[in-house]
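Now for one record.
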Amino acid sequence: MKAEDIKLYYEYNEWANKRILDAAERASLEQLTAPNEYGWGDIRGALVHTLDAEYGWFSFLFGRKDEGILDPKNFADIAALRERWDRQSEITRGCLDTLNDEDLLRIHKSERDGAAYNWILWQVLVHVVNHGTQHRAECAALLTSFGHSPGDMDMSLFFNERDINSSESDKTNREDIMLLLRYNDWANDKILDCAARVSSAQLGAANDFGWGSLRGALVHLMDAEYVWRNLLNTGEHVEWLQPEDFADVAAIRARWVTERAEFWRYFDGLSDENLSSVISYEGDETRHRVLWHCLAHVVNHGTQHRAECAALLTGFGHSPGNLDFTVFLLDKS
């Protein structure tokens, strides 16, 4: 990763945060504080946790004073939360502006519960954005159920709106993108392992999260990898996979094994130069995109919809546990 690449991640993060706050501002205090089982108590708690993660990590990574965990009760409404978040966004941009490419390989040491950790700076910075995507997805699902959908928060939509069709950095490091794709596989496996324990009725139970059911969301996750691989490899669109074609999780997993092998076969043929090249494809109009930006979207999109699946699975009594990028980094080490 290069410094300009990380800044792009945080431009997306700020854009997505604004969309979720705009939707949350339309909700009542009762809706914002209605209890849920997602891990942070209510929507307000999840939003404050998302901000707190950025605040805490940037305080640690850049040697800033950390005054402790932010308390949701100190934010009477979304306007107060937005004001605090705007200040953090300014701090975040200022910190990122101090970085050069070499800084991103800096090691930050921490200790918790007697265990020592070594964090590579760029990986933690990506984690903060990935973590935000996860919790925004949870909040989006809840807000949608209250009639306040934030709409599409895909990284690809951000690229479309900003018309980002070139990279200001030099060659992208292939190993870095590979690490993100390995994380994507690791997290997908955790979701599938839990989904294998639900009943057929739970797998097909209707919900308002956008893909109809847990089965629909799982197939959409797999379908995004299938569709994007074909689009990037051939420039052609393929027909979407249909949930009704998969009777159970075993069938989804079997198809995903095949798709994963094809995805890695495609990626293995890419060089650093390929990843940094600009490709073109047809959508509602002709799009020109840096190839690795599209792959970053695939991973980010996976995080979003895994969060929805994790929320459903938790409600069914089968939590997949922590899917953070940092947990993957520790798990693989």
About this structure: The radius of gyration is 20 Å. The first strand starts at residue 107 and ends at 112.
